C-alpha cells in the first residue's frame, strides 16, 4: 500500500476483554514500531520489530500486552484483559531500516468501557 | 524529570505571525532531532529531521538545534490556518532505535 494502514480505526471494548490491533506497514519496510498516545500526551514507545524479531520489548506496559510480526509485514498488538487505563490511540510506524524516517499510520483509537 | 520537555500550549497566533516552538532535553546522547506535525485524529507526519547542532530550513519551516543548551526549536514563518495542529518534537541517540517524543504543542492559527 501507499502508506501505513491500521485497523480498526476505532475500537470500543468492555473491560476484561481481549483486543487485537493490526498494522500493515509500507511494503519493503523492515522496521516497525508501536506507540501509545494518551489524551494530551506525547507518544509512548511500546515495541519495535527489525524484520520479524523484537529486540526490545521493555516498553510494553505489562504482560497483558504482546505483539508479533509475520512475514516481515503485518504486525498485531494484542492487549489481554483490557483495563480502562488502556484507553488511548495506538500508533504504528514503519521505516525502511531502523533509524530511517518513520511513517505513521492514522492510529487505532481504543476505548475501554 | 522527563527526558524531553515541551510546553503543551495551546498557542494561538494570528495568520501571518512567526511561530516559535521549543523543546528541552536532558540526555546528551541525543543526536537526531525531529519535528512532527499531527492533525486531529491523524498520525504524526515528519516535518523536519536534523542531525547534531545547527539550522535546517525547508520552505516556511526552520529547525534549530543547540546541543550545548540541550534546546531545539521549530520556527514557522507566515503562519497559515492550515498550520493549526499539534507539533511534536522527537529525538534519539546514534545507534538507537527508540525515539523519545515530547508531549506536543497545540497550535492554533487564526484567520
Textual characterization of the structure:
The complex is a heterodimer of chains A (113) and B (111). Chain A has strands at 5-7, 10-13, 19-24, 31-37, 43-50, 53-56, 65-69, 75-79, 88-95, 103-104, 108-112. Chain A is mainly beta. In chain A, a hairpin with a 5-residue loop joins strand 7 and strand 8. Chain A is globular, with a radius of gyration of 13 Å. In chain B, a hairpin with a 6-residue loop joins strand 9 and strand 10 (100-101). In chain B, strands 2, 4, 5, 9, 10 and 11 form a six-stranded mixed beta sheet that branches. Chain B has a five-stranded antiparallel beta sheet with strand order 1-3-8-7-6, with no helix packed on it. Chain B is 0% helix and 58% strand. With 111 residues, chain B is mostly beta strands. Chain B is globular, with a radius of gyration of 13 Å. Chain A binds chain B through residues 4, 31, 33, 35, 40-45, 48, 50, 55-56, 59, 91, 93, 98-99, 101-107, 109, and chain B through 4, 6, 8, 32, 36, 41-46, 49, 88, 90, 92, 96-104.
